[in-house]
């Protein structure tokens, strides 16, 4: 991984390619609890957040990062899942999306991460008519983002080369 943007874009591409029914993908910042103040988004929506679980320095300005990736699946609905409910199948489609998220990410490795494993799955109370679930994964990545500045400095460094032949006596 060169930077966090690459990781986010890899996850966004996976969702776009494998879950076309997701209508909105974005970084998580608690949008569902501020629906009237937030930029409007369509549902089903999937949000993602990243947090480090631990780091290990493995080289100059390079870290091995144990990362937690939280996907928040939000589906705004008044539909019910109980047997005989009106539009029960539409409500149950939400559960199918949770399975598809897991099929897309559990046990995978990509260009920017490896060893992704689901570690948690739980509902999140929203206080509104929407269903929100958080599906958490852990994965490992190598973070070179601090080294990029170092590489840029090396590219712009002035190098003086002595053009005199080296003579051995």
List the defining traits of the structure above.
169 residues, STM4215-like, 5-stranded mixed beta sheet, 3 helices
Q: How would you sum up this structure, described in words?
A:
Helix content is 26%, strand content 34%. It is of the alpha+beta class and 169 residues long. The longest helix is centred in the middle third of the chain and has 18 residues, at 88-105. The chain is elongated. Mean pLDDT is 82; it is low at 150-157.
How does the helix and strand content classify structurally?
A: alpha+beta
**Which CATH architecture?**
2-Layer Sandwich
The amount of beta strand, in percent, is 25-35%
- Let me know the largest β-sheet: 5 strands, mixed
Query: Count of DSSP E strands?
Result: 5
Distinct helical segment count = 3
Strand order, main sheet: write it out: 1-2-3-5-4
The number of domains: 1
* Radius of gyration, CA atoms, in whole angstroms: 23 Å
Question: Outline of this structure?
Answer:
This protein is an alpha+beta fold. It has three helices and five strands.
Strand-helix topology:
Blueprint: H1 4-18, E1 24-27, E2 45-59, E3 62-76, H2 88-105, E4 114-123, E5 130-143, H3 145-155
């Amino acid at each position: 991984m060169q930077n966090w943007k690459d990781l986010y874009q890899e996850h966004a591409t996976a969702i776009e390619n494998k879950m076309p029914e997701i209508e909105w993908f974005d970084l998580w910042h608690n949008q569902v609890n501020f629906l009237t103040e937030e930029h409007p988004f369509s549902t089903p929506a999937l949000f993602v957040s990243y947090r480090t679980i631990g780091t290990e320095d493995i080289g100059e300005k390079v870290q091995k990062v144990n990362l937690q990736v939280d996907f928040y699946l939000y589906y705004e609905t008044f539909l019910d899942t109980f047997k005989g409910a009106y539009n029960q199948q539409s409500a149950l489609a939400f559960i199918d999306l949770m399975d598809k998220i897991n099929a897309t990410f559990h046990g995978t490795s990509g260009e920017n991460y490896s060893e992704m494993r689901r570690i948690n799955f739980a509902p999140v109370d929203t206080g509104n008519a929407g269903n929100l679930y958080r599906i958490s994964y852990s994965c490992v990545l190598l973070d070179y983002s601090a080294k990029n500045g170092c590489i840029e400095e090396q590219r712009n460094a002035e190098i003086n080369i002595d053009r005199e032949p080296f003579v051995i006596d």
